[in-house]
Amino acid sequence: MNPNPRQLTLLSVVQTQGSATVEQLAERLDVTLQTVRRDVQRLADEGLLKRFHGGVRAPGSTVENIAHQQRESLHAEGKARIAREVAAAVPNDCSLILNIGTTTEAIARALLSHSGLRVITNNLNVATILSANARSEVIVVGGVVRSRDRGIIGEAAADFIRKFRVDIALIGISGIEADGTLRDYDYREVTVSQTIISHAREVWLAADVSKFNRPAMVEVATLSQIDRLFTDAPPPEPFPTLLTQAEVRYQVALT
Cβ atoms within 10 A of the Cβ of 37, count? Predict the structure, then answer.
């Protein structure tokens, strides 16, 4: 499915709060109860929400992410804004690592007009996108290809990345918890992401607002290991304080 803007807002509200009643959603979205129930049913049928009597909650799995195709359409407009903001900050003639995720894929599309980039990636989708740019070079990490999203994971991928030290790591994440930890689902992916972070001079995190307070099983890093955060809406509490304490510069991409 391709959620409409109202449904994306509904998803964002539920993901931020964890759960909501039908009445709360109707008031927040300024629509009828019938409209909310119809939207909730459609989103629940796609596995994006879980229904309970009188309300709805986020799927809440800490062990498995939602499908890549579903993630591509979720918050697509916000991810595009983030991607444009990131691309505007990336200079020509620098070295990058991009990891797995639909946000980093959006960033790859936004980087197509750059020149002189040397990009290392464990994301075959990113490699496919950026290989169309003859003015830059793409290096693909070796390792096991995860079929559901074409990400390259495992120790072999981490070993390959250890050969390099790049100017900027551009990373996505599955969730940022209220204790300031960045989390993901697959420990084999986490090993690669941790290696990426440790082999970059600067680490830039790109995360739409739905990632705040979203649970996942495996710790990747903490906010203190991030230099810059790009997001599409003001982070909810307690994240502004956490970001300030961690000395993370953050930018909200509004256009």
Answer: 15
